[in-house]
Amino acid sequence: MIASYGKKRTMLQISRTVSIPDDEIEMSAIRSQGAGGQNVNKVATAIHLRFDIQASSLSDRNKEKLLTLKDHRITKDGIIVIKAQEHRSQEQNRAEALQRLRELIQSAMVVPKPRKPSKPTRSSQKKRLASKNRRSQIKSSRGKVTDE
After folding, report:
1. For residue 91, what pLDDT is reported?
2. From CA 90, how far away is CA 47, in angstroms rounded?
3. Per residue in 78-112, pLDDT tens?
4. How far from chain centre, in Å, is Cα 31?
5. Which residue ranges make up each domain of the chain?
6. Is the pLDDT assigned to residue 17 strictly greater than 90?
7. Which residues partner with 18 through β-bridges?
8. CB under 8 A, 24+ apart: contacts of 83-89
9. Following DSSP, what letter does each residue of 17-66 receive, concatenated?
10. Using one digit for the tens of pLDDT, what is the confidence trace for 42-74?
11. Cα–Cα nearest to 53, from 34, 33, 38, 73
12. Would you give the DSSP letter of residue 84?
């Protein structure tokens, strides 16, 4: 969803509090790869999106989280590169590329819930000790056989 503020500036809305101005997202139309007949040879429908994390207006915490992501779309220089070419129209591919950028940034913004260590139940402790006991019986029966 691209929100329009006034007539000059549009933004890519990431969440209720985070949005990216369009001038920080660089998009260029390129020719699509693969099958598609004459259309693929004549029309530049694929979209090549580039987003510089360091130069963006995102908060420092969000920038750091994005840079630590192990994603093949993020270069060593901290630039997100997305290529969208699934659709036959340039407009659909542009929307697809922006959606992928939004999802990538949202995935970096998610704060994992802290794990609360739980105490094992009494029955699970009994089961564990019983299985250890059974296993020790099996192993002790594997000793050397002596004639007495």
Report:
1. 92
2. 7
3. 999 999 988 888 899 999 999 999 999 999 888 88
4. 26
5. 8-109
6. no
7. none
8. 83/30, 83/46, 83/47, 83/48, 83/49, 84/46, 84/47, 84/49, 85/32, 85/33, 85/34, 85/45, 85/46, 85/47, 87/45, 88/36, 88/39, 88/45, 89/45
9. S-EEEGGGEEEEEEPPPS--THHHHH---EEEEEEESTTSSS-HHHHHHH
10. 888 899 999 999 888 888 998 999 899 888 999
11. 73
12. E
Q: Please state which of the ranges 28-32, 46-50, 101-105, 115-119 shows the lowest mean pLDDT.
A: 28-32
Q: Once rounded to an integer, what is the mean pLDDT over residues 31-40?
A: 75
DSSP 70: -
Query: What CATH fold (topology level) applies to the domain 8-109?
Result: Double Stranded RNA Binding Domain (3.30.160)
14 neighbors 102 (Cβ within 8 angstroms): yes
- Please give the Cα distance from 105 to 87 (Å, whole number): 23
